[in-house]
Amino acid sequence: MKTKKGFTLTEVLIAAVIVAVLGGVAIPQVSKAKARASAAQAVAYLRTIKTSEKMYYAKWKTYVGGATLAEIKGHLGVDVQSKDYSFSVVSSPTSTFKATATGSTGNTITLNQDGTFDDSGTEVEKTYAPAS
H or E stretch including 102? Predict the structure, then answer.
């Protein structure tokens, strides 16, 4: 008597369904984890920018405002390297500033001179911006 080698069509289909279900569950979780990691990196850069702004203010009695990445690096010494977020600083030179990280999907995280995160934005912002 010959023994059959291989898998039946039913076994292959069951395996394919299991893989599809696992993929359907895992892929969204990986995407969320990536978004949280990118936001955490943006928050770390914003905190570094805030500290550098405070140091700049202590020396020059003004905040750096309207800063591009080159100006953030040149004036504040913060080399921002992020492919998922762009950064900007807006200030009233003698009293306030807001550093903003804008994500590639349009979400923003904003930190002011007091170290307070603005949570008035989208659910993404509220989800990823830390408590002040």
Answer: strand 96-103
- Maximum distance among all Cα pairs of the chain, rounded to whole angstroms: 93
Asked whether 43 and 129 are in contact (CB, 8 A), the reply is: yes
* pTM score over 0.90: no
Q: Are strands 96-103 and 85-92 parallel, antiparallel or unpaired?
A: antiparallel
Q: Which two tokens stand for residue 106?
A: 């349009």
Per the rule left: phi > 0, alpha: psi between -120 and 50, beta: everything else, 57 is alpha
Better pLDDT: 28 or 2: 28
- Residue 94: C-alpha distances to residues 71, 74, 82, 116 (Å): 18, 20, 29, 18
What pLDDT sits at residue 8? 92
